[in-house]
Amino acid sequence: MMAALWPALLIALVASTVSVMVLAHRLSFLTVGVAHASLAGLGLAAVGGLPLLPVASVVAVAVALLLPLMPTDRGLHHDAASGMLFAGSMALGVLLLATADRQQVDLFSLLFGNILTVEGGDLLWMEWLAPIVLFLVWWMGRAWWSIAFDVETATANGLPVRRCRLLLYAVVGVTVILCVKLAGVVMTTGLLVLPAAIAWFWGRTLLGLWLVSLGAGCTAVVGGLLLSYARDWPAGASIIMLLCLLFCLSWLFTALRRGWGRAG
């Protein structure tokens, strides 16, 4: 368990930080799509005998950046375009994984995550990527926040809105790949949506939202790993369930507090 704690906390730090921007920009569907599309990168790496995370990261960023470039004329909106892009990427990944050496592919770990499979090369890749992502969020956070809630004012103030959004999409793509090792392709979205969703009940400022999101993410990771160790449960599923529980408790407390306020 101790070997899994450091990479899990590193993923929680990055995912909880990016989570605030995912919710502010309503990019939950993007995280679902990129996570599933990452199978193409994992398949390419498995077939070519290449390191999984670097190849999957490149493919995830490429898929995330393709989304705003998809044609939206003739009634083809972004949701349909992104659905086709993500489905095609995932289909390619499944075909590639089907042709790969079965001894090199642990499909269950890819789909549902297994932090215990993080090896030296994967951890080094995480430790290299995480500071870059955190620096970009620190550097661009105010601009992304402004664009999320008042794009007209951001444009009037001279912000390059399109380039800022493309950079955010790339950051989300990289973060999705970091999360895949912990929660798998299927549950990665939980790590990128639930921490900020919990924070939305408590925080009022960008700093407040980030602190609550970080606290929720780290609490769920530590608690999930302890549950996994004690009960022999999958770590990724335990962490996501704790995040869901924290969300429900926050929702319930907020509803009760509003009820008490009206009664008073």
Q: What does this protein structure show overall?
A:
- This protein has 264 residues and is mainly α.
- It has ten helices and no strands.
- It has helices spanning 2-24, 28-48, 52-66, 78-99, 107-112, 120-149, 151-156, 161-199, 206-231, 235-263.
- α2 (28-48) crosses α8 (161-199) and α9 (206-231) crosses α10 (235-263).
- The mean pLDDT is 84.
Determine the N-to-C terminus distance: 48 Å
**Which whole number gives the mean pLDDT?**
84
Q: Name the beta content range.
A: under 5%
What general outline do the C-alpha atoms trace?
A: globular
Structural class: mainly alpha
- Radius of gyration over alpha carbons? 19 Å
Q: Can you tell me the residue ranges where pLDDT is under 50 for at least 5 consecutive residues?
A: none
| Number of strand elements | 0
Order of helices and strands: HHHHHHHHHH
Largest sheet: none
Helix tally equals: 10
Helix content: over 70%
Question: How is the topology of this model organized?
Answer:
Blueprint: H1 2-24, H2 28-48, H3 52-66, H4 78-99, H5 107-112, H6 120-149, H7 151-156, H8 161-199, H9 206-231, H10 235-263
Helix pairs in contact: 1-6, 1-8, 1-9, 2-3, 2-4, 2-8, 3-8, 6-8, 8-9, 8-10, 9-10
Task: From the structure above, extract its key features.
264 residues, mainly alpha, 0% strand, globular
Q: What is shown here, in short?
A:
The chain has 264 residues and is an all-alpha fold.
